[in-house]
Each structure stands twice: as C-alpha cells, then as structure tokens.
Amino acid sequence: MSKRTQIAASVVGAIALASTSIAFANPLQDVQKEEQKIVRDAAKSQEKIDGLLEQSQELLAEYRSVVDQTENLKIYNDYLAGLVADQQRGIDSLQRQIDSIEETKQNIVPLMYKMIDSLEQFIKLDVPINLQERLDRVERLRDLMTQSNVTVSEQFRQVLDAYSIENEYGRRISTNEGSISVGGSSVPVDFFNLGRTSLVALTLDQSAAYVWDNGAREWQSLDDSYLGSVVTAVRIAQGLEPEDLVKLPIKAAE
User: Fold this and answer.
1) What DSSP state is assigned to residue 226?
2) Residue 213 burial (C-beta neighbours within 10 Å; 0-12, 13-18, 19+)
3) What does the pLDDT look like over 207-232, one tens digit per residue?
4) Residue 196 and residue 170 in contact, taking contact as beta carbons nearer than 8 Å
5) Domain range summary for the chain, segments of one domain joined by +
6) Alpha-carbon dihedral sign for residues 100, 105, 110, 114
7) From which residue to which does the signal peptide run (predicted)?
8) In the prediction, which pLDDT does 5 show?
9) Model-level pTM greater than 0.85?
10) 62 φ/ψ angles, rounded to the nearest 5 degrees
C-alpha cells in the first residue's frame, strides 16, 4: 500500500473513532446530569428530612413540656380541690353555728326576761342596800331589751353584769347617805352595811341608830348600847378610822 493510501486510511479511521467517541459522550453526559440531579434531589430530601427531624424534636420537647404542665396542673387542681373542700366544710360549720345561734337566741331571750324578773323580785325581798339604784338598774335592763341596735350577746352580758353587782353587795362594807321613814317621817341618815349580814342607819347628828329587820321589812330603833359601835362602823367605812372590831346587831340564823 502506498503512503498516500495509508494516510487516507488513517484519516478515515480517526474520523470514525471520533464519531464513535462523540456518539458515546452524549449518553455519558446525560447519565452524569441525572446523577447530579439525583444528588441535588437527595440533598434537598435530606434537608427536608433534617427539617422534619428538627420539627419532630421540637414537637417532642413541646409534648413533654405539655405533659409536665398537665401533670403540674393536675397536682395543682387536686390541691385547689382540697382547699375548696376544706372551705366548704368551714362554710357548712359556720352555717350550722349560725343556725345554732338563731336557735340559741330564741331560747336565750325568754331566759333573759326571766332573769330580769327574778332579779327584780330578789331586790325587793332583799336587804334594801342602795335600793333605788338597784331598781333603776333593773329598769335599764328592761329598756335595753327593747333596743334593736343592741345585740343579744350585749344584752346578755349586761344582765350578767347586774347579777355580778348584786353578788358584790353580799361581800363588801360600804356607807352612803340617804333617808329612812320613822314614825311616818323621813329622817336623813348615814347607812352602813356589812354585806347583807347587817344594815344599820345613823342619824346625821349621831343621836340615834336603827337596824333593818328584813323579816318585818321595817326599821327598828337600836338602844344606846349600839350607838357608839354604829358611829365607829360608819367612820371606818368612810375611811376616817382604821378597821377595828365593832358590835353590831345581827339576826341569828333560825
């Protein structure tokens, strides 16, 4: 074969090889493009997966937080329920007390009227120590019972106070000025009482003395043997003399 023929064959072979390479290059590029697209899609999918994972983690954390809050709220609600139940028991107890107070009022008001009546009767039958003052106290109690602005408890307290004052008359020594009726005449005197044991009266000029006879409900004249002792007793009660033994008329117990 001549050199020209060889060169021509070589040229033809090179062209054929180049054509074959081009023919194989296009599918390869397509494959590479598809692979790149797949890689990009995979990257995007991974991003989506990562995003979904992150969201799921956030939702899980939020869920746990909600669960914790729910548990806390349940505990707190149970606590509040206990408080409400205790308050309801307190309310029920107060209501029972209120009902009891109303019932007590219904019973105690008649009792107070009976106590006032008994006190008045006792004073009228008792030794007349500060008689008018004691009777006035009873009238004030009766007036108090008609005042709507005074509570039942305050009314009861004052009735008990009156009884306490009456009790004190039996334990104290006292003197005060007043007058007694003797022979139809009013005689000014100084009274002296040794509790309820003895009540005597001394005229202001200290010329005569009298003793109260509670059985006869009248004043009786004392003989002169008691006059000095009565004078001393009055002065002791007035704080003018120190305490000392004195002779007083005392009715013996039957």
Assistant:
1) G
2) middle
3) 999 999 998 899 999 999 999 999 99
4) yes
5) 109-169, 173-237
6) positive
7) 1-25
8) 54
9) no
10) -65, -40
